Amino acid sequence: MSPEIEKPRVGVFKLSSCAGCQMVLIYHHDYLPEILGAVDIKNFKMARRDNDPEGKFDLALVEGAVTEPEHVKLLKELRPRTKLLVAMGSCACDGGVLSMKNSTPEYQVESTVYTDTSKFTSMKTQPVDDIVKVDAYARGCPVDGPELLELLKSALAGKRPNLSNYSVCMECKVNENPCLYTNNKDACMGPITKGGCGALCPTNGRACRGCRGPHTDANIISYARSVLDREIPGREDLLRRRELAEFAPPNVFPQGRNVIKATEVAVVSTPIGSKKGGSSQ
Ligand code: SF4
Ligand code: SF4
């Protein structure tokens, strides 16, 4: 009898999140039999009763943003015993919607939600790679199923995953959508957002709101100036772009972050139609 081959040990871990990315993983289980059959899932609290978060992992999928000291502890303990660590979803990759709280003092955030805040030690939202090294990013809010599949297959095969390397605009053009931005319909974030979703929102008539995080080569300064100079609905969304710049890795948008912060006041205090806000940089 041939010796049994040890399957790769996989763990799914959750930080602060809505658990939507884990739901995608569960939803796609029908399409993942070859993968699920090929691995030994040791920790996946949302999907199984018996879990073992200890020991070594060949692959760890981390969902959620860091918002508590316990998350920092978990990541620092997990990283040295994990071969490949994947940030799963926008919260883990960039901080996601949880980053909205970062412009508000933490005690104010806590007391908005809880009457007794004495038991809470929440902290500013951070992406996983602010704390530990991340080997691969599965983007999206929630994560894209086929993209996650490609990532898992590649991890098991030990090859580089074939993921998109272009902006949402590129996919929008491929879909032959009329452009919301150039047609002055909305301050769509497609030009600065990482593609891979197939331009899901613009294809369905809605502007991209950047859930897949900033595209690596995005010219956010030019984009911010362009939005300020236009009479376009959703211009006040620059506030949201400020959030996006806020949670982007510091080496990606340092200038963009400053430009956006500097123009924020002008944007919110300048009525649409006035050009005053565009000259403030
Ligand atoms: S609608 Fe948005 S994503 Fe599509 S081309 Fe225009 S700016 Fe880009
Ligand atoms: S179009 Fe933008 S907001 Fe919509 S799914 Fe894609 S990246 Fe996310």
What would you say this structure looks like, in words?
By secondary structure, this protein is of the alpha/beta class. The chain folds into two domains: 9-157, 3-Layer(aba) Sandwich (Rossmann fold); 168-279, no CATH class. The chain is 33% helix and 10% strand. The chain contains eleven helices and five strands; from the N terminus they run βααββαβααβαααααα. The protein has helices spanning 20-27, 33-36, 69-78, 90-94, 106-113, 145-157, 168-174, 200-203, 220-228, 238-247, 254-269; strands at 9-14, 40-44, 57-63, 82-88, 136-138. Helix 3 links the parallel strand 3 and strand 4. Helix 10 runs antiparallel to helix 11 (254-269). The longest helix is centred in the C-terminal third of the chain and has 16 residues, at 254-269. The radius of gyration is 21 Å and the shape is globular. One iron/sulfur cluster binds at residues 168-169, 172-173, 177, 179-181, 188, 190-191, 199, 202, 208.
Key terms:
alpha/beta, Rossmann fold, 2 domains, five-stranded parallel sheet, 10% strand
Termini separation comes to 73 Å
Which strand order do you get reading across the main beta sheet? 2-1-3-4-5
Shape: globular
Structural class: alpha/beta
